[in-house]
Design brief:
alpha/beta; three-stranded parallel beta sheet; 8 helices; elongated; 2 domains; six-stranded mixed beta sheet; about 260 residues
């Protein structure tokens, strides 16, 4: 008896789209989609690890976008909510989207579509909130620096906003909850990590929604980085898969990115 497969991926949006491509291509009966760092292999489910392929991911991206601009945006935003089980929810919706006979995706009152819309709305709200209230501080090496600790992984979404408004300044926004950031050095904008040499590793243990007033741990980080040479601690070669999202697929330059 075929109990279906649990597909395991690297945690990135590109990886998730690659899973969708492979599941469609192989006509896989998907019972769950899990990140490799938290995968739980059941007794009665076969598992398969799917490696990210940008070409396949882009084909799925373009396919969804050709169906609906609002669909691809909601799917991407909902994915960045990092909600437990969001991958399977999105996969099932994408199946409906491409089904020649199933028109449920046109009915915005269906449970899956409502849930995806709710998640996307929450992520979108936090994106705009951070864009409005984020405050940069000038470090000793004249770098505009800000830390955030958002509930959702919105850093890929806010990058375009700051890149367009501060193109002639060097800045770095660092997500202290997820331990990665985006650095703009006048010539390019790239995903980075910071070499903290063990310092402040325990400053924040849990994420809190960013608000108009910085959380105490964020203030501590900002005070800390004001006193050091931040550029010397930047690892510009970071290409951690779980953070290779919007910058890779160029979503940040789409008309609807806002």
């Amino acid at each position: 008896m075929d109990n279906g497969k649990v597909l395991i991926y690297d945690g990135s949006f590109n990886g998730f789209l690659t899973v969708v491509y492979q599941a469609f291509d192989k006509k896989t009966d998907v019972t769950d989609i899990q990140k490799n760092r938290i995968a739980q292999r059941g007794l009665f489910s076969a598992t398969e690890t799917v490696f990210t392929k940008m070409g396949k991911a882009r084909k799925v991206w373009n396919g969804i976008q050709s169906k609906s601009n609002s669909a691809i945006e909601n799917i991407y935003f909902a994915f960045l909510s990092e909600t437990n089980g969001v991958e399977l929810l999105l996969y099932r919706y994408i199946k409906k989207l491409f089904s020649p006979t199933d028109t449920l995706h046109l009915n915005f009152t269906t449970g899956s579509m409502v849930r995806i819309g709710q998640l996307a709305k929450a992520v979108r709200k936090e994106k705009h909130h951070i864009e409005t209230f984020i405050r940069f501080q000038l470090t000793q090496d004249q770098l505009r620096f800000a830390t955030i600790s958002p509930e959702f992984d919105v850093l890929p979404l806010i990058t375009k906003h700051f890149r367009s408004r501060h193109a002639n300044q060097q800045w770095l926004i660092y997500d202290i909850k997820r331990k990665y950031g985006v650095h703009h050095n006048l010539k390019k904008t790239e995903i980075i990590s910071l070499n903290l040499n063990g310092m402040y590793n325990n400053v924040i243990q849990e994420g809190k929604t960013f608000s108009g007033q910085c959380h105490n741990s964020e203030n501590q980080y900002n005070d800390y980085f004001k006193k050091i040479d931040v550029r010397s601690r930047i690892n510009a070669k970071l290409r951690t898969p779980q953070h290779d999202t919007g910058l890779q697929l160029n979503y940040l330059d789409q008309k609807r990115a806002g």
